[in-house]
Amino acid sequence: MTPKSHTTLLCQHLQSTMLCQAFHRFGQKLIRRRILQQDMAEAAPTRSLSTLDLVALGLGHTVGVGVYVLACEVASNQAGPSTMICFLMAGLSSVLAGLCFAEFGARVPYSGSAYLYSYVTVGELWAFITGWNLILFFVAGTAIVSCAWTLVFDNLPGNEISQTLRESISPHVPHVFVEYLDFFVVGLVLLFIGLLTLRNSEIFLVTKVFTLLKILVLVFFITSGFIKGDLHNWKLTEADYVKAGFNDTSSLGTLGSGRFVPFGFEGILRGAATCFYAFIGFDNIVTRVEEVQNHQRSIPMGIVISLFISFLMYFGVSAALTLMVPYYKIQPGSTLPEAFLLIGWAPAYYVIAFGFLCSLSASLLGFMFPIRQVIHVMVKDGLLFPVLARIHTGTYTRIVATVIFGIIAAIMTFFFGLTDLVDLRSIVTLLTYSLVAVSVLILRYQPEMQNEGNKAEVQEDNRPSAEQLTLQGLFFPCSSTPTPLSGRIVRVCSSLLALLLTLLCLVLARWPVLLSGDPVWISVVVVLLVLITGLTGVIWRQPQSSSPLYFKVPALPLLPLLSIFMNIYLMMQMTAATWARFALWMLIGFAIYFSYGIQHSRVA
User: Residue 209 burial by CB count (10 A; 0-12/13-18/19+): exposed, middle or buried?
Assistant: First the structure.
């Protein structure tokens, strides 16, 4: 070999080495994690919120559009009287995610919700994805509630507002701009942007008043339903359909088969998937953790109590609705107040409609307020532009973030339909819940960190490892407490499980092929189940952290994995258009992160 060729090979080797090192450094930036202790010395907000305040906050987010719209939608053509079972199943599914949020709320004494939880466990890139999606979650929620608010407001005078707009505007603008009260919705969002420039204490007082009013109105509806109700509406037969004017009893497909479960178990499953939306919002409680007097106790209790009360409201309303009105008389798309028109109680209709408007107003404030909380945390970490955290000197609110994302919500409300917004918000929620479940699974098996921040972690990662990874050590660890090796094993296994569960859900989405008995697909399912079972067993055998917490998720690792599986499977049911909108939002987020956030990250 000539000296020249030797030099060339050496240069190529150095270039490849430098390239590998560059990729390694880039990868380390994506997975760098935030250490909780690094913020201990910083000034915290005044801790003034009690458990009762958190329960009011949770109810303000969960009891809203779901109880006033979804109850009628599910009862009319999906489940009938068994709608209450649908809410029960959806509530149990939400509890799995709620348990994960409750543990993190007890463990992490900082605001930031799932964003911060991902940051301290799975790394910066996933934390940014979670935080960026949380912003979309609140923006889409604002748009959804605005649409529902205008529907109820328009129904009060008998749709005269929308008819007048169509007659006066339609000759001058395209049809798409007058099909709904889009201009009114945009104005409504801008009005609430103005309300959000008030001080935090004033906003929270308004939210609590709205929440109390809507709970009282729902109690009135439940009481009226049981007074006017008839148990025979849970035992309807074909004879009742004939008596009601449905003479062709041989084609009752759209009415079901009667009785308590007219659409069968399949209808209950479809209804439960729809009712899942009704429980979204309890996680907003953990965005206020820095303002809670006793976060380790109040956060778990606030989440559990708010979910329980929400379920009671949904269960009672669906029972009262189907007792008061035969399910086949409920029109798809109708709202809860219209049930009183069917039984001739017109004054009660206006009472419930008033409660509906209060409920949606509280939800609108509740969705727009946490946007600036999450943005504040992300700006403080250096992942978003500092201008978004600019504070108004008079009211001490983040005026720029409130106005910008409020306008985005108004634009989404103008151009997207209600169903499109619901699907977009659902996919964001399911992804966020999955990341929180993964974070709980990882953090429970990590060794205790020392109180020296990033330096402690660097020393821990660079010290010589006395442990050796062996096959026996995977199932029979030598230590009874978490070690760096066992923590890394859980991280790797959790990542592989997330991938395998995603593949399993993709295969199960082709369930007609599986039912046909195709041996290839059945073999794939069996292999995936075996791998998932083996990795779950490895995680189960690793030592857990013994840190005393007021609340811990039971039955680890099964409950977080079950939550991840259910969330991913529901995500697979979304339409291509929903995925396209979600991808566009993520492209905007990645452009911000890779052009600004990765360079200005505070953790760096």
Answer: middle
Burial 477-488 (b: 16+ CB within 10 A, else e): beeeebbebbbb
Domains and CATH numbers, the chain: 69-248+255-443 (1.20.1740.10)
Q: With a cut of 80, say whether residue 545 has pLDDT above it.
A: yes
Separation between Cα atoms, residue 311 and residue 323, nearest integer Å: 18
CA angle 99, 130, 541 (to 5 degrees): 50
pTM of the model: 0.76
Q: In terms of pLDDT, which residue wins out, 314 or 275?
A: 314
Distance of alpha carbon 125 from alpha carbon 600, whole angstroms: 13
3-class secondary-structure state, position 50: coil
For residues 376, 434, 567 and 132, what is the CA-based torsion angle, rounded to 10 degrees?
A: 30
Burial 317-341 (b: 16+ CB within 10 A, else e): bbbbbbbbbbbbebeeebbbbbbbe
Q: Do 555 and 95 contact (CB within 8 A), yes or no?
A: no
Which of 511, 507, 556 minimizes the C-alpha distance to 527? 507
- Three-class secondary structure of residue 419 per DSSP: helix
Q: What is the DSSP string of 252-302?
A: -GGGTT-SS-TTHHHHHHHHHHHHGGGGTTGGGGGGGGGGBTTHHHHHHHH
* Measured distance between the N- and C-terminal CA atoms of the chain, rounded to whole angstroms: 45
Find all residues with CB under 8 Å of 591, minimum gap 6, and list them: none
pLDDT band at 461 (very low <50, low <70, confident <90, very high): very low
Name the strand (E) or helix (H) holding 369: helix 346-380
Contacts of 547 (CB under 8 A, 6+ apart): 107, 448
Helix, strand, coil abundance in the chain, percent, nearest 5: 75, 0, 25
Residue 117 has pLDDT above 70, yes or no: yes
105 in the Ramachandran plot: left (φ > 0), alpha (ψ -120 to 50) or beta?
alpha
Residue 141 is encoded by which pair of tokens? Answer: 């929620």
Handedness of CA 563, 564, 565, 569 (dihedral sign): positive
Beta bridge partners of 396: none
In whole angstroms, what is the distance from residue 390 CA to residue 379 CA? 10
